[in-house]
Amino acid sequence: MSAEGVLTGRVRSAVRGQQSHAVNAVAGVTGSAAQPLSAWNSANSRGVAGESSERSVHALTVFLALLASAVFSFTDADGQRTLASLGFQAVCESLLVFTAAWLVHRGRGWFAVHPLQLPLALVVLAGSLLWEPLQRMVFESGRPFEMLVMHSQKNLMLALACLGLTAGFRRLSVFIGLAICIFCCALAREPRVLWLAAAWAVLSISWLMASYWSGLQGRMLPGQRTRLPRRWLLAAPALGLLTAAGSVGGGRELISAMQGFLPGSGGDGEYDEFARGGVNDGDALVAGQDDIRSFGPIEDAPFADSDKPSLYDVVNDRFDEPVRKNRTFQPAVALPPEMMADVQQRLSEVRQAGREFSLVRRKRSRDRRRARSIASAAMFYVAGRTPLHLRTEVYDVFDGVHWIPTGSPADAFPLQLVHSAGKPWLKLPHGPRGMELFHHTDQHVLRPVNLKSPVIPGPPDLRQLHIDKVERPDLFAWHAPGIVRMTGETLPDLVPIRMLSEVLDPNRLRESKLLMFAPGREMLELSLPDDPQINQLSQLALEWTAGLPRGLQQVDEICRRLRTEFQLSPDNPSSTETETPLSDFLSSRRGPETLFASTAALMLRSLGYSTRLVSGFYVRPERYEPRRRQTPVLGEDAHFWCELMVGPGTWITVEASPGYDVLLPPPGLLQQLSSFVISIMLFAWKHWIFSGSGLAVLVICIYQRVRLEDALRTLVWRLVSASSGRRRVQQTVRLVERRLALAGLRRPAHLTLKRWLGGLPLQQPHAVRLLAELADMAAFAEFPEEAQRRDETSLLCNQLQQQLSLQCFLLAAASCREAVDGETKTSAAGRFAVGSSILPLRTLSSS
Amino acid sequence: MAMVQELSHVKTADLAIVDQLRMRLNTALRGKPDVVELVLLGLLANGHLLLEDKPGLGKTTLAKALAAAIGGRFARCQCTPDLLPADITGFSLFNQKTQEFEFREGPVFADVLLADEINRATPRTQSALLEAMAERQVTVDTRRYPLCPQFLVLATQNPIDQHGTWPLPEAQLDRFSMKLSIGYPAPEDESQMLLLATRQQLSQPEDSPLLEPGQLANMQAAVATVAASDAVRDYLVRLAGTTRRHPSVPLGLSPRGLLTWLRVSQARAWVQGRSFVSPDDVQDTALPVLNVRLGLSVQECAGVVEEILSRTPVPEYSP
Asked: How far is A74 from chain B (nearest CA, A)?
C-alpha cells in the first residue's frame, strides 16, 4: 500500500473510530439504492482530476496543430524558402497560438456566457480565403487552388485548437491536422515533411489516449484513481519513436522485413487480383518523376534506343572472356543412344553460335578493373521482393570444361494467352504437378532499360507474364525450360514485363515424402563426363555426405561446405591453359560463383541427383531503393547457380555461392517482428559503445527519474519569474505538490494542503504551516502586491521550497510505510489522526 | 509567519475578547472546548443552536454563562405539551388601573434563551418560537415587537425520550445554524469536577460581562465582511449540490442553509484571525451545519458528510 493510501485510510479510520455506525448505515442505504448512488458518484467524481485531463488534452491539441502546421509550411515552401525563414514562421505561429490558447483558457467563463467560438473559427477560415485575392493583387504572389484550400484549413485547425474548450472543437482540429498531414505526405518531395508527419502520428497516439481518458472522467467508480496516466501517455509515443529509430538504424533489411506489414492499395509486395489499383506498387504503377529511364514503369512510355549490351556481353564482362582453344583431350560424356543425335546436333549449333559456357576464363588485369568499367548502368529494374534469381539460360551437359545450354524444350507445352481483368497474360504451362510444395504467388515487374536480348529473365517457377498490348502468343517462344523469349531481336525497352511466379515453401519441401530426385527421363541432368576431376568431386561429395540420408540433407550439407569452406572470389584460380578448372577450384578453395555452382551441380550428380546449371541475374536486396521501391540490376549482377530436381517438372534453386540467398515466402508477422528485433540487436551490437552508453544513461535516468524530474522542475521554478507575489506562491505550491506526488504522497483532491501536509510526519512543521497559510492566502484572499512584499514573498518561497525538498517527502513516505509495516495501529493512527481528520473540530488557538 | 499575521487584517483586540469569551465558557463547561468553539461560532454568525443531548450535561450552565459573558439577559423556557405560544412570545394583560392592555414580554425578549426540550412543545408553540428566531420579532395582537438583534436561542432536545414529542420538521430545523451534541465529559474532567465540588471550589460563573454594548454587533458585522473568494463559494455550491443529489439524504441543503454554512465558515475564519474563508473552514464546519438539516441521525450524518467531503475536490491552489 502506498503512503498516500495509508494516510487517506487513516483519515477514514479516524473518523470511523468516532462514528462507528456511519459506514454501515451508508452501506445499508447503498445496497438498496445502488443505481442512484452510482449515478451520484459518477456525477461527483469529475473534479480537479477532470480539469487536469482537459488541460492536457487541450495542450496536446495545440501541439498537434502546430506540428501539422509545420508539415504544411514545408510542403507549401516546396524548397523555395530557407530553413531559417520556415523556423521563424513556426516560432511566430507558436507564440500566437499559445497566447491565443492561454487567453481563451483564462476567459473560459466569458465564453461560457458568450458562445462565440464557432463564429470566430469561421471568421478565421473566411479571412484566409479572402486574403488570397488581396495577396495576389498587392504582393503579386499566390498559391495554387489546392494549396489555398489547405492553407485555409490549416488556419481553421489552429483556430479550433486555440478555441479547444470543448471536445468537439479539439477533435475537429486534430481531424483537420490528419487530413493536412496526409495531403502533404502525398505531395512532399523532401524527407523532412515525412519526418514531421511521423512525429505528428506518434504524438497523436498520446492525444487519443488523453482524449479517451478525459472522456472517462465522470464515469469512474468510487475509489478509483482519476488522474491522467502520464507514464502511459509517454510510453505509447516512446514505443512509436523506438520503432522509428529502429527502422532508421536497422537499415534496408529492417525496412524490407517490415514491408508488406501494411499493404497499400493494390497490394504491397503481394499481388491481389481484387485490388482496385495501387500506387507505385501493385497494378497501377506511377510514372518516374526524374527520368523516364528510371523506374516507374508505365505502359505508354516512349521507346528509347541506345547501345545496349547483350546477355553474352554481360556475362563476359562479369566473368571475363572465355578461353577458346583446342583441348588436348576430349572427355567422353556417357549418354543413352536415343539422346545422342539430339545432343550432337545441339552441341554443333551451340558451338557454332558460341553459346557454350566455359569454366576457363581469360584473366583481366586488375588495373583495368575499375569501378567505371565494371559498374555499368542498370540493365533493367525489378519491382518486387528480393533476393531474386532471374533465369536466362539453362545448361545440362558438362564436358569437363564447358557447360552446354539445353536449348528450347522440344516437347514443351505450347504457350497460351489468357485474359485476366482485360489484360493479356501469357501462361507458361509446366509439367505435372502432384506436389503441393508451393506456398506463395509472387509478382515481379521487370523493366528493361539497357539490355539487348530477346530472352525474358524470369524467376524460377514462372507461371504467367504480361506485356501490355502484346496479345499474340506467337510473339513468344520457348528459349529454355521455363525461360521464354520474344521472337524479335530484343525486348521492348522501358516496357514493363509483369511476372507471376510461385515460391516454394521450404517447410513443406522438407516435410514432403514425395520428393523424387532422379526420375528416368531427364538423364542429361544426371550425365557426368569421364574426367579425373569428376572423380575427385565424387569422392569429396561422398566424404561430405557420409552418414546423411539421401535427400535434402545431403544437398544442404554440400552447399554448407561450399559456402563456409570456400571463398568467393572474382579471380578465377585456374590458368587459361588448365583443363581441370574444378580441380583447381577444389585445391585453391576460392573462385567465382561459376565454379561454386558447377561444383555443387556435379557433386550432386555424382550422388545421383538430377541437377543443372543456370545462368542469369541475381537481384540483390542491398541495391533496393526504398524511395522508388525498385531494385536496379547491373551487369555485375550476372550470376550462376545450380538447380536440383525434386519431382517431375519441379526444380528448386540450390545456391552454393556464399553471400547469395534464395527467395523465401514472405515472412509472417512473428518472423517480421523477430527480424525487426534481431536487426535492432545487431545494430546495437555493432555500435556497442553508443548503445551501451545510451543504455546506461537510460537506466540511470529511469532509476533516478524522480530526482531528475524534481531537479528539472526546480530549475524551471528558479528560472521562470512570477509577475506577482501570488503567482510566485502558486508556483511554489505547484512545485511542492509535484514533489509530494513524486514521493508517492500525492495530495488527495478532497483534502486541503494544510490538512494533508499537517498529517505527514515531516520534520519541518513550521515550514509546512507557513506554506499552507501562504497557499490559502494566494488562492483565496487578496494578496499584497507591493514591490517590497513581492520580494519578501519570493525570498520566503525560496526558503520554503528548500526546506520542503523532495528528500524530506521521501523520508516521510518511508516513515509512513514503516508505520504500516512495523508500528502498532494505535500509535500510527494516533500519530496520523491528529491534524488529518476532517470532521472533528480541533481546538483552535491563536498560535 | 509574522508576515502572514500582519496580512490578516483582523483586529487583535477583537481576538482577545473572543479568547476571553472562550475561557469563560470553558470554565463553565469543562472539558468540551469543541462545543464551546461551536457555540462561539454560532454566536458570531448570529445564528441559533440546537443541542441534542441527554439531561444534566451542562446545557443550562452553558447558556447562562454565555448570556452573562455577552452582557445580555438570560431566559429559560421549559417546553411542555401544555406550553402555549403566548408563554413564549408574551401576552397582553389588561391593566385595571390604566384600563389598557399592557404587553408582558415573554422569554424571547431575552438576549439568550434556553428552550429546553423544544420537541415536547406542540407544533403551534414551536412555530411561535421559530418565527421569533427567524424574524427577530413577535406579533401579538397585530402589533409587532422587535427582539434583540443578537437574540440567540439555545434549543435542546432529548435524543432518547421520543414518547409524547413533536419532532421539529425539516423546514424549521433549517432555522438553526448548527446542531451540537455536548456528550459526557471525559473521565478526568468528571473526576476534576467532583474534586472541586467536594472541596467546594466549584467555580461560580462570573456575572461580569466581557463585551460592551454594541461590541457583539460589531463583531458580528466584522464576521459578515470576511471575504469568500469565487473558488470557496464555488466549493460551497458544489457541496450543496452534492447533498441534494446524495441518495441517502432525504432533503438536501437549502439556499438558506448554504448561507448559514458560509456565515459559520466566515466566523471560523474570523476567530482564527483571517480575513478570508479557506476550504478548511468549510470542511471543519460541515458536520455541525449539515447535522441539523439533512434529516439524518448523528451517526448517519457523520458518514454521509464524510462521503460528501471525500468526493468533492477542494479548489485548486494553483490554477
From this structure: 37
From B177, B148, B178, B156, select the one nearest B72 (Cα to Cα).
Answer: B148
Closest C-alpha among A294, A396, A305 to residue A343:
A396
Residue A345, all three cell numbers: 546436333
Q: In A, which residues are within 8 Å of B309 by CB distance?
A: 750, 838
Contact B287 A839 (CB under 8 A): yes
Between chains, do A840 and B34 touch, taking CB under 8 Å as contact? yes
Count of other CB atoms within 10 angstroms of residue A741? 16
CB < 8 Å from B in window 757-786 of A: 766, 769-770, 773-782, 784
* Cβ pair A730:B315 closer than 8 A: no
Interface subset of A 599-658, CB within 8 angstroms of B: none
Query: Rg for chain A (alpha carbons), in Å?
Result: 39
Q: Do A730 and B317 count as a contact with CB atoms less than 8 A apart? A: yes
Distances in Å between the Cα of A581 and the Cα atoms of A254, A500, A577, A603, A772 are 40, 37, 10, 14, 94
Tell me whether A49 touches chain B (CB under 8 Å).
yes
List the single residue in B247, B277, B312 with the smallest CB-CB distance to A33. Answer: B247
- Distance set, CA A107 to CA A731, B230, B296 (Å): 21, 15, 41
Pair type for strands A611-619 and A638-647 = antiparallel
Cβ-based contacts of B280 with chain A (< 8 Å): 752, 754-755, 776
pLDDT in tens, A314-360: 777 777 777 766 655 566 666 667 767 777 777 777 766 667 788 88
CA A331 – CA A350 distance, rounded (Å): 18
**A426 three-class SS:** strand
* pLDDT digit string, tens, across residues B233-242: 999 999 999 9
How far is the C-alpha of B171 from the C-alpha of B45, rounded, in Å?
A: 20
Question: In this structure, what DSSP letter does residue A73 have?
Answer: H
Q: What is the DSSP string of B17-79?
A: HHHHHHHHHHHHSTT-HHHHHHHHHHHHTT--EEEE--TTSSHHHHHHHHHHHTT--EEEEE-
Cβ contacts (< 8 Å) between B302 and chain A: which residues? 15, 18-19, 22, 839
Using CA atoms in the order A132, A137, A140, A143, what is the torsion angle rounded to 10 degrees? 20
Nearest beta carbon to residue A774 from set B4, B313, B314: B4
pLDDT digits (tens, 9 = 90+) for A416-470: 888 887 888 888 876 555 556 666 788 899 998 888 889 999 999 888 889 887 8
pLDDT per residue as tens digits for the range A518-559:
655 556 667 777 778 888 889 999 999 999 998 889 999 999
Distance CA A650, CA A514 (A): 12
Please state, in angstroms and rounded to a whole number, the distance separating the CA atoms of residues A394 and B23.
Answer: 116
Indicate the DSSP class of residue A642: E
Task: Please report, for residues A390, A459, A528, A570, B54, the alpha-carbon distance to residue A601 in angstroms, rounded to integers and kept in the order given.
Answer: 18, 19, 10, 20, 112
Query: A44 at the B interface (CB within 8 A)?
Result: yes
Sheet-wide strand order for A357-358: A357-358, A402-405, A388-398, A611-619, A638-647, A650-654
Contact yes or no for A199/A67 (Cβ under 8 A): yes
Q: How far is B201 from chain A (nearest CA, A)?
A: 26
Prediction pTM value: 0.55
Report the DSSP pairing between strands B49-52 and B178-180: parallel
Grid cell locating A838: 476532517
Neighbours of A69 (CB within 10 A): 22
Query: Residues of A numbered 787-806 whose beta carbons fall under 8 angstroms of chain B's beta carbons: which are they?
Result: 789, 792, 796
Cβ-Cβ contacts under 8 Å, B310 against chain A: 12, 748, 750
Separation CA B306–CA B319 (nearest Å):
26
Q: Which of residues 700-739 of A touch B (CB under 8 A)?
A: 730-731, 733-734, 737
